[in-house]
């Protein structure tokens, strides 16, 4: 996928801040658990001992290891730097977002997930849905819910900002919020709230904020214009108009093409 879309390799921020540990076998020792006994080294030691003692018979080569012949693998723990990322998916599930729009979001999210997982050792995915209110849901609910109602985008951004502040410090995590909507919002005042949340709370912590506007016969499409007006010069914000399934791959390239 990366070659097809000419996606650059991502240089994660905050790398090597999270450390896991792995066991590495480093040598041989004379004591240890039987599960780590080294058969070949044990056999060779028994053979050497029997030859030295004159008890080895080439015509009847029976090798019987004794306790002193046994050899075991030794190990030590080594730090394994982790470069972790969290993807926070947000989706408008108001009445104007139909099954076709949700299917586009599902397909695009799958490929975004696939690419980011190839770039990081660890990925967490979180899911937020919203109409006039926002809530966190599991993956299955995110892709299959049939909510309806009005749209208040700031409710999702407030929950996203709270999630980042409480669980994902930007010094340790690479943070990727993705928001999908048809572009309708409750009011101009709520759009202003969204802009302030992005400027003050979300963008300072993120690698990238991506907004995908799915074309819907019921949506006004205004929100992408508002984001462009306020963030056109900000490289941390990427917007994409997704007119149908055929536009999904181009949208992914717009989102991830800067390698942030």
Task: List the defining traits of the structure above.
260 residues; alpha/beta; Rossmann fold; two-stranded antiparallel sheet
Fold and architecture overview:
With 260 residues, this protein is of the alpha/beta class. It folds into 2 domains: 22-78, no CATH class; 83-256, von Willebrand factor, type A domain (Rossmann fold). It is 37% helix and 25% strand. It contains 8 helices and 8 strands, in the order H-E-H-E-E-H-E-E-H-H-E-H-E-H-E-H. Strands 5-4-3-6-7-8 form a 6-stranded mixed sheet, sandwiched between helices. A two-stranded antiparallel sheet has the order 1-2. The longest helix is centred in the middle third of the chain and has 21 residues, at 99-119. The protein starts with a helix and ends with a helix.
Catalogue the unreliable spans. Answer: none
CATH topology tier name of the largest domain: Rossmann fold
Strand content: 25-35%
Tally the helices.
8
Summing up helix and strand content along with how strands pair, one would put the structural category as alpha/beta
The strand order across the widest sheet is: 5-4-3-6-7-8
Shape assignment: elongated
